[in-house]
Amino acid sequence: MHAEQRRVADDGLNYLVIFPDDYDADASYPLVVMLHGFGANMQDLAGLAPSINRKGYVYVCPNAPIPFELAPGMTGYGWHPPRGQATDEHFNQAESLLDAFFTEALNEFRAEESRAVLLGFSQGGGMTYRMGLERPDKFVALVALSASLPDPEILRPRLPDHREQPVFVAHGLHDQMVSMDSARRTREFLDAENYNLSYHEYNMGHEIPAEVLRDMVPWMEALLPPLVEETDRIF
């Protein structure tokens, strides 16, 4: 696998593209879009790609727009300021930038007609809910890891009439960053709205261990099968 850094126009998001092994530019690969958490950057979730599938997907990882000084000389990025400090303007900016990014990435890699999965961790998982639930035409499924939707009532009017879009949720019983209660409230909201929810709680903290991937990857591959070259087929 190899990666390239790109940018959406002059004022858009920087993003990382991770190409699969033996990438064929003429082939039409399904797309996995990964949104990092607060204080990280576009490199953060790139390491998941080999653990998901090395040959069958293209992965794209946008960099959140707002820089934060985490410590002297150490900068991380967020989709919006920490909870309690974010305003509607912050959310509107993030959504506008992501919308432009989705358009570019889905067009470039010919992933129209629900041939993409949107995955997010922590704050990126919250943005996955905000951006993905109203876009079932773009994303065949959503994955929210160690995340929650703090104000679901804001999102309710934006939901589509038909809500068959599958959603995979993984949360740690010992998560000290995003509370278990907030994750369960998000589950209750999705259940009440009749979403196709695959909800999991793990004996973990704020992280993505191997046991989460063991559940997530087969679920994802069943909904968005990886590209299989003829030489990879078993006869």
UniProtKB/TrEMBL annotation:
InterPro entries: AB_hydrolase_fold, Plant_Biomass_Hydrol_Est, PLipase/COase/thioEstase. It holds the Pfam family Abhydrolase_2. One of its GO terms (molecular function) is hydrolase activity. Residues 27-220 form the Phospholipase/carboxylesterase/thioesterase domain. The keyword Oxidoreductase does not apply. The keyword Signal applies. It comes from the Eukaryota. Keywords: Hydrolase, Signal. This is Acyl-protein thioesterase 1. It comes from Geodia barretti (Barrett's horny sponge).
